[in-house]
Amino acid sequence: MAPTTCFNCKEARAVIIRPKNRHKLCRTCFLEVFETEVHETIIGTNLFCPGERVAIGASGGKDSTVLAAVLKTLNERYGYGLDLCLLSIDEGIRGYRDDSLETVKRNAVQYDMPLEILGYGELYGWTMDQVVAQIGKKGNCTYCGVFRRQALDRGAAKLGIKHVVTGHNADDVAETVMMNLLRADLPRLSRGTSIVTESGASDIKRSKPLKYAYEKEIVLYAHHRQLDYFSTECIYSPEAFRGSARTLIKDLEKIRPSSILDIVKSGEDMAALVPQEVNQSGKKCGSTAAAEDDVGGCGSQNGRTSGGEMAAMEKELAENESAESRETEIRLPKGQPLNVSQQKVVKKQTLGHCERCGYLSSQRICKACNLLDGLNRNRPKTAIEVSVGMEDEESSSTLMRQMERTQLTNS
Ligand SMILES: Nc1ncnc2c1ncn2[C@@H]1O[C@H](COP(=O)(O)OP(=O)(O)OP(=O)(O)O)[C@@H](O)[C@H]1O
């Protein structure tokens, strides 16, 4: 069979089937299309100001490595005038983060960017290895996620930087949309879909320039640019709910590759429909929540693909072509109004600062301090129940009461 020519340049031989739209592209065109799309996202959302100092949350994994490489390329190509640096959080996981940080250190040299590393040990007095030794693997991601979000803010503040970019991709955002739909949590859905999560009070803006980039394309980009990244997964346990949302999305993607972007777009459209008062409280506490529950947790929770899976990826895409004919339209029965008791009452939250550490929080004591309380008082179970309950329970007021009780019990 004659080799297929590139859909874009019509000259070179196609070596990539684009996961997003199945266009067959040559290496050069694929890299260019990928970079151009990220550039369009950046320009279309006015993401950066000229001369802005930006910290790239660098884990050494494929997403943040691609983000660093692409931002460096685009900054030079289009003259954004950004002052870029790498910011890494060392969660203290031996045999995982120590190795990935070695990759980040090499990246700092390769991309000629300064690197700042901050550890949970120095920030909280607990490494994740110590947390897991104390509480076991179950629920440890809650600690890690809460601590990391704060740690990135604190790292940026230490550097005097007001903008942190992360490697969250379209798959991550689609997972978050799906999770919040399943939780009927409209304010969080609204916050999770936004490319920028900003907080008037903390002064640190968080954004995800790869918001529309497919994870598979990120892997392809890293592979074809031969980027140096770390692909081992975290040695601690996965978060079940996100993992299930992820599996669901991956299954949908097999039948219909555009599903991921469609879910992201649907999330954006639904976010635009969030009522004003909810949106306002969402915006205010969005700062808090943005700080405390930004999209995605730890990617390693999610069973990520690695750069060595190119062949499997292309085979999977070829199979998808035949799967499309099996697509079915599912209609919901008409005229069944939602029972009032099923409708979620969204309580307005007030933004403030944690009394202990000063971090943004809608609670008197922030999630991280609550978790630390539990650890320090040798009562991890109580703390994690409260924190996980924040995510899963229907009534936030019940949880606030629960939290107050815990604090009373603890003090
Ligand atoms: N230890 C860390 N230090 C700095 N930034 C981090 C760290 N862990 C995660 N991040 C940031 O959060 C983003 C999403 O993290 P997540 O753990 O979901 O990783 P991921 O999707 O596997 O990304 P990556 O491939 O970059 O590790 C990362 O792309 C990175 O920007």
UniProtKB/TrEMBL annotation:
TM spans (from-to): none
UniProt cross-references to SUPFAM superfamilies, sorted A to Z: Adenine nucleotide alpha hydrolases-like (SSF52402)
Residue span of region Disordered: 391-411
Its EC number(s): 2.7.7.-
Compartments, as annotated in UniProt: Cytoplasm
Keyword entries, A-Z: ATP-binding, Cytoplasm, Nucleotide-binding, RNA-binding, Transferase, tRNA processing, tRNA-binding
A molecular function (GO) term: ATP binding
HAMAP family given in the database record: CTU1
Similarity section: Belongs to the TtcA family. CTU1/NCS6/ATPBD3 subfamily.
The protein, known as: Cytoplasmic tRNA 2-thiolation protein 1
Organism for this UniProt entry: Penicillium subrubescens
